[in-house]
Amino acid sequence: MHTHEGDDRRPLLPRRTARPRRHQRDKTGIPLQLTLTVVDDSTCAPLNSALVEIWHCDALGEYSGFVGNNGHDEPDNGTFLRGGVLTGSDGVARITSVYPGWYRGRCVHIHVKVHTDVVTLTDDGSFTGGQELHTGQLFFDETITTRVAALAVYAADTVPRTTLAQDSIYDDGGAASGLLTLTALGSSPSAGYAGTLTLGVES
Predict the structure, then answer these.
(1) For the chain, what percent of residues have pLDDT higher than 70?
(2) To which H or E segment does residue 153 belong?
(3) This prediction's pTM
(4) Which one, out of 58, 69, 71, 94, has a CA that is 20 to 30 A from the CA of 88?
(5) Gap between the Cα atoms of 178 and 2, Å rounded
(6) Closest CA to 184 of 175, 194, 176
(7) What is the residue-wise DSSP string for the chain?
(8) pLDDT for 74-87, tens place per residue?
(9) In the chain, what is the greatest distance between 2 CA atoms, to the nearest angstrom?
């Protein structure tokens, strides 16, 4: 899988020695159920106990720790929509979140890192150690994003939306470039979506 470096136009993670482990999803938005499978890029064997860390903006395009950068005033606990989980023996990490919004200049996306090699989970819900093997971004089908953007909670963000085709990071490589396979959880967009992807990393 191709890797994409973080967007250098917007700070992403507060500096800290231990990062959030439990994904803080207490934000308004439609459900997003992620199933991410981590495999060895050369053997396709699933990686057990790899930490899959994600972070993304909320429905108004705001990142925790940096609320206001997209022009909205809302509470900021510094941890919402950030965190991660360990894979099981099948290499699968399951994370429940909300469908991201957007901010100026970027399409809808989620940042993802994969860590292995003795990740230590701490009592305060953080983690230390580990070796970062993958940094990338997850992307969303434009047709589905258009439907989601019409919902009231997302339409409240009046910042012009950059489409997948217009984005400066996504290279139109499909799943190999981080494009999720999305499946509707119900009969309307407000029911949410399930997103799946296999992340091949060099272990």
Answers:
(1) 75
(2) helix 152-155
(3) 0.82
(4) 58
(5) 8
(6) 194
(7) -------TTS--S---SSEE-S-B--SSS-EEEEEEEEEETTT-PBPTT-EEEEE---TTS--TT-TTTTS------S-BTEEEEE--TTSEEEEEEE-----TT--SEEEEEEEEEEEEE-TTSEEEEEEEEEEEEEE--HHHHHHHHTSHHHHT--SPPPPTTT-SS--S-GGGGTBPEEEESSSSGGG-EEEEEEEEE--
(8) 776 767 888 888 89
(9) 47
Quick one: which H or E segment has residue 135?
Answer: strand 126-139
Q: Give the distance, in angstroms, between the CA of residue 172 and the centroid of all CA atoms in the same chain.
A: 18
Q: How far apart are CA 179 and CA 137, in angstroms?
A: 9
3-class SS string, 175-200: HHHCECEEEECCCCHHHCEEEEEEEE
